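Known limitations

Structure tokens in this collection are predictions and should be treated as such. Users comparing against experimental data should check residue numbering before alignment. To illustrate the layout, the record for HTH-type transcriptional regulator MntR is reproduced below. The input appears on top and the generated tokens appear beneath it.
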Amino acid sequence: MPTPSMEDYLERIYQLIDEKGYARVSDIAGALEVHPSSVTKMVQKLDASEYLVYEKYRGLVLTAKGEKIGKRLVFRHELLEEFLKMIGVAESRIYEDVEGMEHHLSWETIDRIGDLVQYFEEEPGRLHDLRLVQEKNESEK
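Generated tokens:
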């Protein structure tokens, strides 16, 4: 299993490849706000762990293993964002909260959150009921 730091890189690399068709060290560094030398070190670790294939000066490609994990990490991130929006967390807090949560939740918990999101999507009346409870609680503060 990749470390939380490796997950951050794999998630961003997957997104860059999905968006642009490629991911360069400079793109990854900019996206993660780290130095290119840090990216190179991590990419070498990811290569050694068989998540991607990296050739100096030629770029990188995700392996099937890296692509599978990258896709799942992006899904996790998007699901947590959707969940927090759904339960009424302020937009300005969502990214920071997702970043704080995503590495600390088990995949079983992520799956249960997915079930809850699906439930609220299929039962919008229940989501409305949740909003009413939230409004009531806010007015009582």
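For this record: The domain at 75-140 is CATH 1.10.60.10 (Diphtheria Toxin Repressor; domain 2). The beta strands are 52-55, 59-62. Please report discrepancies through the issue tracker.
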